[in-house]
Amino acid sequence: MTHISNIPANFKASGVSITGLRKSYGSNEVLKGIDLEVKPGEVVCLIGPSGSGKSTLLRCVNLLEKPNEGKIHVGGFETTDPDVDLDKMRQNVGMVFQQFNLFPHLTVTQNCTVAQTKVLKRPAAQAKEVAQKNLDRVGLGAFGDRYPDELSGGQQQRVAIARALSMDPTLMLFDEPTSALDPETVGEVLAIMRSLAKAGMTMLVVTHEMSFAKEVADRVIFMDGGVVVEEGIAQDVIGNPQQPRTKDFLKRVLDPTHVEIDT
Amino acid sequence: MAMTTRQRARLSKIVQIIIFVGVIVAVLLKVDWKILGSTFFAFDKLGPIFPELITVGLKNTLYYTAISFAFGLVLGLLLALMKMASFAPYRWFATGFIEFFRGIPAILVLITFGYGIPTAFPGTNWPQPVVVMVSLGLVSAAYIAETLRAGLQAVPKGQSEAARSLGMPAWRAMVTIVIPQAFKIVLPPMTNEVILLTKDSSLAFILGASMAQYEMTKFGRDGITSLGAGITPLIVAGALYLVITVPLSLIARKFESRSARTKR
Ligand SMILES: Nc1ncnc2c1ncn2[C@@H]1O[C@H](COP(=O)(O)OP(=O)(O)OP(=O)(O)O)[C@@H](O)[C@H]1O
Ligand SMILES: [Mg+2]
User: Fold this and answer.
1) Is A90 in the pocket of ligand 1 (CB under 6 A)?
2) CB under 8 Å to A55, separation ≥6 — which residues?
3) How far lies B93's CA from each of A138, B109, B157, in Å?
4) What is chain A's Cα-based Rg?
5) Residue closest to B64 by CA, chosen among B252, B160, B198
6) Which of A55, A58, A64, A208 has most ligand 1 atoms within 8 Å of CB, for mutation?
7) Which residue's C-alpha comes closest to atom 25 of ligand 1?
8) What is the dihedral of CA A163, A168, A173, A177, to 10 degrees?
9) Nearest by CB to B164, which of A64, A147, A167?
10) For residue A112, how many C-alpha atoms fall within 13 Å in the half-sphere facing its CB?
């Protein structure tokens, strides 16, 4: 089990507010009017079947995808305003990808310092210090000189989290951060996310880890077919779902060996 | 008659040896060594073209290659970016340019700039190095553009997305994250391009010029008529091209195997 050292003082927090969000790829409407609220300091898990639009929704929040309609507020920014400084907004929003997307030509430490020095213009020494602090936090303080391809999947994802934290984000987005991992390394990544949540980080997490969602999330949102089908307190949505589609989905996820295929 | 694998392999080897030995024997019997020597290997008569073949010819070959490559690299990068631009007319222009200059022989471009342009626009009398730089640069830019575009697009999209999500502007993500990774991908094909340019710089021989601007092939060709050593001067020039290109190939191969091993 990974040892997670010194849980830090509380984070500065930004909320997210989404109204009437629509997104299409050509004629394929993927998000069909989403309303969603994440309060500062809140942890919200987004669950739903493959292709339901979870990643698209998450990527709209920091505008990696451009919404067709609707409004999104993140912290003090209205990200859908064409005049907003997207780079400035993204400095405050950390993103962790399913495939890690570490920079393979840079060392672990450089992965954590490059945006600090080039974007935030921090002096190199300070950036290194911040990187070290965050690598310590994810239990990889001794791995700074390695290259990403010299690390396991779980370690790479932890570096990706440290890289995002090094920008002092007020909001963290996670897109299935454990889906590409070997089963035995899933736990170490979830442990770090749990500690972040405890420390007060605002988090919007797409995940298939139902026990994590149940334990850590303040709220769970179930999406299907580009709409929010059900949302509420984690224990309610996962423990006692009301909508048939939610029940069906959870049955398949929680007990995949007993799924009946109707023909 | 059916043969086993072993029999067939043995037969194949025997046939190859017979052909090999046969060709060598035929050559040895047929060739008049005296004529051969005075045509290809009359090194004793080469005195007059040294040291200028090296101090002027080799120097100019390297010089023409370098300036053509520099010009081609800048123009090629511009074309690669145009080809990936969101504004369609840029893409059309880049595509047209690339197809045109990849499709015509370099020597035509050289003649156009060496003879056509000065005739059509009296007063434009470019010095020979400029004619070579522009002509060969235009042609190599077409190849370089495609190489660079392929290299940039070979870097996974997740890389620039990660960079952008850390707040990097598009140009910064390009410079700091994408280009360094693309560089390793394009190094071997770029070395190839330099080798092709080294050889293409020989086309400058068709341009009339003063001796100070001759490159190696021009020296070799003039040596054929003036020295009475057969084509020996060209043989020597050819060997000097290999002195440039073979080390380049070796360097490229070394880089290739290094980036294949570490993949970073
Ligand atoms: N760049 C794109 N171009 C076209 N269609 C896309 C693109 N990205 C996503 N889609 C489509 O949008 C739909 C929703 O995709 P999305 O990735 O948001 O689903 P998801 O809920 O994250 O699924 P998963 O659990 O498999 O990750 C899918 O039908 C997908 O094919
Ligand atoms: Mg997804």
Assistant:
1) no
2) A175, A176, A206
3) 50, 19, 25
4) 18
5) B198
6) A55
7) A50
8) 30
9) A64
10) 35
Give, in order, the Cα–Cα distances in Å from B25 to each of A40, B11, B36: 89, 21, 16
How confident is the model at residue A259, as a pLDDT? Answer: 67
Query: Which pairing describes strands A16-25 and A69-74: parallel, antiparallel, or unpaired?
Result: antiparallel
Tens digit of pLDDT for each residue in A169-202? 999 999 999 999 998 899 999 999 999 999 999 9
| Chain B nearest C-alpha distance from A105 (Å) | 5
Compute the distance between CA of residue B199 and CA of residue B181 in angstroms, rounded to an integer. Answer: 29
Q: How many CB atoms lie within 10 A of CB A256?
A: 8
The ipTM is 0.90
- Secondary structure (DSSP) of chain A: --------SPPP---EEEEEEEEEETTEEEEEEEEEEE-TT-EEEEE--TTSSHHHHHHHHTTSS--SEEEEEETTEETTSTTS-HHHHHHTEEEE-TT----TTS-HHHHHHHHHHHTS---HHHHHHHHHHHHHHTT-GGGTTS-GGGS-HHHHHHHHHHHHHTT--SEEEEESTTTTS-HHHHHHHHHHHHHHHHTT--EEEE-S-HHHHHHH-SEEEEEETTEEEEEEEHHHHHHS--SHHHHHHHHHHH-GGG-----
Residue A257, Cβ density class (10 Å: 0-12 exposed, 13-18 middle, ≥19 buried):
exposed
Phi, psi of A22 (to 5 degrees): -125, 140
Residues A103-155 pLDDT 10s: 999 999 999 999 999 999 999 999 999 999 999 999 999 999 999 999 999 99
Please identify which residue in the block is written with the tokens 């709409």.
A227
> Residue B163's closest chain A neighbor by CA?
A115
Q: Using CA of residue A185, residue A191, residue A193, residue A194, what is the dihedral sign?
A: positive
Listed residue (B128, B109, B126) closest to B214, CA to CA: B128
Please state, in angstroms and rounded to a whole number, the distance separating the CA atoms of residues A247 and A80.
Answer: 34
| pTM, 2 dp | 0.81
CB proximity under 8 Å: A 197-216 to B: none
Q: Which helix (H) or strand (E) holds B92?
A: helix B88-103
Which of helix, strand or coil describes residue B118?
helix
